[in-house]
Amino acid sequence: MHQYLEEKGHFNRHIIITAVVILLALSAAAIYWLTRPAIPAHFSALQTLNEYQQAKSIKGFGTIVPRHKLVLSAMEAGLVTEVLIRPGQQVQQGQKLARIVNHQLEQEVQKADYELLSVQSDAQLQQSELQIRAYQYQADLNRADTALKKQKLELDANRQLAESGVVSKIKFAQEQMNVEQLRLEQQAAARQLSLFEDSRQEQLRALQMKVSAAEQRRAFLQARLDALTIYASIDGIARNLEVSVGQRVSQGQSLMELVDTAELIAEIQVPQYSAGQMALGLAATVRTPGGQVAAVVEHIDSVIRNGAISVFLTLSQRPAWLKTDQSVEAHIETGVSQSLLVLHRPDNFQQYPAWSLYQVDNQQARRSAATISEGPDQLLVVTGNLQQGQQVLLLPTALVSSEEFSL
């Protein structure tokens, strides 16, 4: 009986131990299933890291700027009486923008008008006097010519009479002397007329120069007066308006700036350590909220300012949504390719603020320290200690908090 009781007690202990082990196993399984991350089915698909060859680019930030701009300044000091535009207004070539009044300059123009009229009147009067004198000298020459011809006729008529003895030779010789005297007088009159004509031409040129100088002075003053009315010399946008009606301005003072919007370029700031990779002609892409525009590097300002250099890009087109002073991001292709680890970007990637990457080995998922970022062609770029061909699981951080779990 005692032996039977011992065997029965030993059997009961085995049953109890077995039950306890089974209970512990069930508890562990229950805990595992209860604590296992609840991953939606559409997030549970494994991905394999692949290698992607991408042309290496340098990213920079900057603004859209005009290729040409014009600063309008006051040509003369004066009082601003009209300002016909507002900052940011689109203006057309030839449009009136502002007007400045300078009363002293207006008086100088009026005085120049009077002086010009006076000089022109004096010149006309002197020209008339010179013409009268020229007529007089010409009349003297004509009289000398007539007297010489008349005396020659008498001399020819008396020549035969003198040979016949009708007229004395002394009288004939006197007539010859008279002819010679008249010839000298005629030559003197012709010479005097020639000299006067040369003098008259010189005086006429001097008078014309005097009139021309007065005309030029008057035109110069009028041009200065006309310049006080400011017109747009190009089509563009007015900005940096620095004057208002009633304000006095000095000569050379800046009034406003006209921006030529017909041709825009991008001025991009690139980190100084990337300066050695910049070259003229490199392709680039300018990204804005309105879209992307292809571009080409046209100029590199290698002077370092605030840790960056300035790179100017020629835009391939001028979309309507591209505006002056618009902030943009640019990616400049260096011509050197780089290898990237990538995986496909989920369609709902933008719906979650943060994502976690889990490295999967033997059905065991372990959170990776690698980081992800958006890449080209709807891909995500993985940066970290992972390798090509590695299987990974991409999960929203809000859905899983475990560092490691079994699949």
TrEMBL record:
It comes from the Bacteria. InterPro entries: UPF0194_transport. It is found in: Cell envelope. The chain crosses the membrane at residues 15-34. The keyword Coiled coil applies. Keywords: Coiled coil, Membrane, Transmembrane, Transmembrane helix. Signal peptide: none annotated. This is RND efflux pump membrane fusion protein barrel-sandwich domain-containing protein. It comes from Bowmanella denitrificans.
